[in-house]
Amino acid sequence: MIKELTVNLGERSYPIYIGQGLLEEVGAYFEKHGISKASPLLIVTDSHVAERYLQPVTDRLKEAGFQPVSHTVQAGEKSKALSVLEEVVTTCLEAGLDRKSTVVALGGGVIGDLAGFVAASYMRGVRFIQIPTTILAHDSSVGGKVAVNHPLAKNIIGAFHQPEFVLYDTSTLLSLPDREVRAGLSEMIKHGLIWDAEFTTWCEDNADRLTGLDPEALQYGLYKGCGVKAAVVSQDERENDLRAILNLGHTIGHALEAVAGYGELLHGEAIAIGMVGAAMLSVQLGNPEEIHTVTERIFRKFGLPVRIPAHYDTDAIMTAMMHDKKFKEGQMVYIVPTEIGKVEINKNVSAALVRDVVERLKQED
Ligand SMILES: NC(=O)c1ccc[n+]([C@@H]2O[C@H](COP(=O)([O-])OP(=O)(O)OC[C@H]3O[C@@H](n4cnc5c(N)ncnc54)[C@H](O)[C@@H]3O)[C@@H](O)[C@H]2O)c1
Ligand SMILES: O=C(O)C(=O)C[C@@H](O)[C@H](O)[C@H](O)COP(=O)(O)O
Ligand SMILES: [Zn+2]
User: Fold this and answer.
1) CATH assignment of 3-175?
2) Among 73, 140, 156, 174, which residue has the most ligand 1 atoms within 8 Å of its CB, making it the best to mutate?
């Protein structure tokens, strides 16, 4: 069964289609959304995804009369870089993409963010389609944040550029390595922790089904997670306020990714540690101890890391954190859980308190 959600953004509203086997019908979805057959379209993908899914997607699109060309980057976070963006743009030019062309992201969040930024910047913006193939990408394919990394800061060169639609074929998830499955589920749990206590409990109770890729559990979890993301983005597309809650765990998490060297800790792993840190911070601010114990228990149940490797340098983490895009006009901003399923945007957290949490995350077990 196909589930459908809408991201409500006025004239830029778009659907998210979730179901098994949707890639078989990829040509029909492109036709339905009026994608040009007269201009070439570019599929951006990575080396792992290309092995399994590039040829079938290309074949289906050609059969339907489209003109697909492709660019395959090396799998992994290091491909979210300006140098790689330039290479993809070279392919756009060599293949003759014009302003009626579409850029298609076929892959996980790295590909979605990279291809999306190509779409946002090539000829000052062309159409974009998200075809997510990881669990984590239920988050990254929705909402229009696209970016590449700088060695000093995550996602610091980017734009907001919404896709035409999101085509989520859940059968692709069956080939994901176990570590990627667990890292992807970290963002699903985040969607529960920020918005929906009942969904958080459901995730915890269904940890084995989710990590075991049970199709029914997966489709439900992805639908709920995408639903939270769509609801938040629909209310605050450009993160003027509410959207910042989607950043739970990311202030510490992004700093860890940059300090470790992109790719050592997966994004979902880094933010799992960050969410445990946010829960510790919450308790320090006077909220119930249960917020920390429950949060940590859930991430442990999913086999995700909950501590910062001891050799990571605290000063370097604190410096990297200062590049967080939520920090403005000299004011630090942290997303702090106030109960399970609710968070606040807190502008009164001192650097000393955060440093203390980072130290505790490095020591306690
Ligand atoms: N834009 C956003 O709103 C947003 C939200 C969350 C995360 N992100 C970004 O997403 C990135 C992480 O995304 P990710 O975890 O999907 O990483 P990823 O894109 O690197 O994919 C993870 C790994 O799985 C492989 N893979 C992908 N699909 C596969 C499949 N179906 N079968 C087998 N292997 C497959 C990839 O080749 C890669 O090795 C980070 O850069 C993060 O910053 C962005
Ligand atoms: O969509 C958002 O907004 C998010 O914060 C979702 C995050 O999971 C995601 O990692 C996002 O890329 C982080 O955004 P950033 O603005 O902190 O780079
Ligand atoms: Zn994230």
Assistant:
1) 3.40.50.1970
2) 140
